[in-house]
Amino acid sequence: MKPFRLAAPLCLIAAPALAGSLSQPATDPVAVTPLFVPAPVGEWTGFYLGGQVGYGDGGVPGTDYDGGLAGVHAGYLHDLGDWVVGGELDYDFANMSGGPGKIDAIGRAKLIGGYDLGRTLVYATAGAFHANLALPGGDRDDNGAFIGAGMKYKFTDTLIGGVEALYHEADDFGGVAGNDLDAATITARISYQF
Questions:
Q1: Domain architecture of the chain: domains with CATH
Q2: Which of 54, 125, 127, 179 has a CB 3.0–4.6 Å from the CB of 187, allowing a cystine?
């Protein structure tokens, strides 16, 4: 009986240490690996090249031209933090027809300045263009200026999609007084950044 009397107080002392808890045991969080990894936010610095397709509408006095266009572009952007600056060259093969002829080519040299929204870049652009107007009596080509705006979106760290709208103007196109050319274009663009 004495061993039992000695064991009873020891059991009472040890009971709290052996008692169960009413709360659930803590578990480690489960790490989930995403299927799509977004591009790094805010990094636009680098060279890029790509292509574009779109639509153009314009003309000279007495003749309207409209139709599709497609081309290539190459440029460089530099990320300054909130702002991005850069330059680009692009060339469109066009089929903007009307009357006896058509605008069949437009090349541009652009300056770009935009605001960095992370994976999105909104920008304004301006520069010079060279266009060719194909006519039955011979081609006319001349230079002019353009302004525009656009938006780029980084799908990954190297793949960029976007849209761009431009307005072109050239006075006395082809050296003909009063033959002022104006044209508006809108293109969807895809680029690869290095």
A1: 46-193 (2.40.160.20)
A2: 54
